[in-house]
C-alpha cells in the first residue's frame, strides 16, 4: 500500500464531510454566488502570500545550499504556480 493510500484510508472517516460542505457543493454545482467565490479567492490570495513567506524564511535559515534551493523552489511554486 502506498503512502497516499494509507493517508486516504486514515482520512476516510472525515473525507465525506469535506465534500458535503455547502461551499464545495455549490462550487461543484455551479451555483456558488460570485460574491462568495470572490471572497474565497481574496482570502486564498492573502494566505498564499503569507505561505510563501514561510518558505522564504526557510531560505534564510537553511545552512545547506541544496535546502535553500528547495525552499526557493517552494516560494517560486507558490507565487508563480498556486497564485
3D architecture notes:
- The chain has 83 residues and is mostly helical.
- The chain has two domains: 32 residues, no CATH class; 50 residues.
- The chain is built from four helices and no strands.
- The longest helix has 28 residues.
- The radius of gyration is 18 Å and the shape is flat.
Outline:
The protein is mainly alpha-helical and about 80 residues long.
Features:
83 residues; mainly alpha; 2 domains; 4 helices
Q: Which regions have little confidence, pLDDT < 50, spanning 5+ residues?
A: none
Element-by-element helix/strand order: HHHH
Question: What class, by secondary structure content?
Answer: mainly alpha
Helix content: over 70%
Provide the number of structural domains: 2
Report, as a whole number of angstroms, the end-to-end distance: 33 Å
The pLDDT mean sits at: 96
Rg calc: 18 Å
Largest sheet: none
Shape: flat
How many extended strands? 0
Beta-strand content bin: under 5%
SS element count, helices: 4
Task: List the SSEs and their pairings.
Blueprint (H helix, E strand, L loop, with lengths): L2 H17 L2 H8 L4 H28 L3 H18 L1
Amino acid at each position: 500500500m502506498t503512502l497516499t493510500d494509507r493517508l486516504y484510508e486514515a482520512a476516510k472517516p472525515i473525507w465525506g464531510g469535506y465534500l458535503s460542505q455547502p461551499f464545495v457543493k455549490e462550487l461543484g454545482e455551479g451555483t456558488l454566488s460570485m460574491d462568495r467565490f470572490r471572497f474565497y479567492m481574496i482570502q486564498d490570495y492573502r494566505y498564499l502570500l503569507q505561505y510563501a513567506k514561510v518558505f522564504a524564511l526557510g531560505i534564510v535559515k537553511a545552512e545547506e545550499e541544496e535546502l535553500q534551493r528547495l525552499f526557493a523552489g517552494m516560494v517560486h511554486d507558490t507565487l508563480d504556480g498556486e497564485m
